[in-house]
Fold histidine kinase.
Amino acid sequence: MFDAIGTPSLPAPWVTLTRMVTTEPDWTRWPRPRPTAAEQRTDRLVALVVLAGAMIVIVLVNSVGAFAFGAAPSLVEQLLWGAALSLPLAVRRRYPLAVVIVVSVAFIVAQWRQLGDNTTPSVALFLAVYTVGAWERNRVVARWSRAGVILVMCAWLGVAFYEAFRGPRPDFSDAAGPLDPFVAALMLNLVINIVYFVTAYLFGNMAWLSARRQAELEYRAAQLRRSQEQNTRGAIVAERLRIARDLHDVVAHHVSVMGVQAGAARRVLDKDPDLAREALRTVEETARSAIGELRGLLGVLRAEDAEPVETTHGASPGLEQLDELVTNARAAGLEVTHGVYGEPRPVPESVALSAYRVVQEALTNVVKHAGARNAEVRVRYLDNALEVEVTDDGRGPLGAGAGGFGLVGMRERVAVHGGELDAGPRRDIGYRVRANLPALDQRVES
């Protein structure tokens, strides 16, 4: 069902199913929610107001003697009929169909008994017919029940016309119109009744449609809020993944190089102090580079959205810094060759950064896990893409790819650009990582 403000609540089976298949609800079958406690208090207040009006009008009519039908039962009976017509309105929105039936029957019987007042019963009947149109959840029942009440009232009006034809004619001595006064009186009565019932019918439909439109607007507003929340959560998750990738790339590579160099320095410290000193110098430089990149990353995280970020490590690394990666890998004891194929050209900065990180991660994994002696880094400039490839002669597969975040981070970086990553053992020996990144020639675009 829909809750008190028109938005869907979980208990309704069709709404739950709608949410499961993520389709738009069938608003033609919208079940209006039950009246709230405040609305039911309003109904009771309306019933008391109508009852008070009926009592007052009945007393005045009887005091004046201006009865609607020329005669009337006792005052006590008239007051009881006024109560019978008014009090059911206290539950008109909870039980609209039952109320319209009770009020319609009481209306006909009260007229048959020639109740002195006809105004208050007409108000009660109008509210009952209107409420069925506005609140009855079964729209087929709402339509045909009102049609039935109107037909019965028309039949009762026909009986009244028939009795009027049979009875004595009223005195129309003051009539001055072109029509027969008696016929004109009947036509006036007919027009008033048509306007009365059509208005009650149409107003009920309008109230139902208005409530349904309000529920639909609130439903779509809730959908929009949920969509915005999902987008926000997705953006947060994407940012966390980006930060995790950057931290992994910066920390893993530099710490790996520092660990290898520190181990080499420890082994040759007594035998070859110069070589140990060179290894420690590499550790020092790598540590400084890692600190610089970490400071830059922390600066990005701490900066406000509208503030420019001033980093201490310069621009983001790109293809020009691949030589540094190769040099660091060589310093770690790995024989690395670096080749560039095709005509070098500018590529988007984000693509260059992703290519750099892929090579960085691949070389880090070779140094840490592959047990390789040789590796090769190839950069290929294709027509509409940039391809980077790292191969080695180690034992493969890369240990980080089996249980760490290395390959996952590489795949995520490549996927951002709509590229492809191929990582796996080579046919003969070793391992290969190849990334294909779409990168249009910027010189042609400009």
Q: What stands out?
A: Residues 69 and 353 are 95 Å apart (CA to CA). Confidence is low (pLDDT under 50) at residues 1-21, 306-314, 398-403, 442-446. The chain is about 65% helix and 10% strand. The two ends are 58 Å apart (CA to CA).
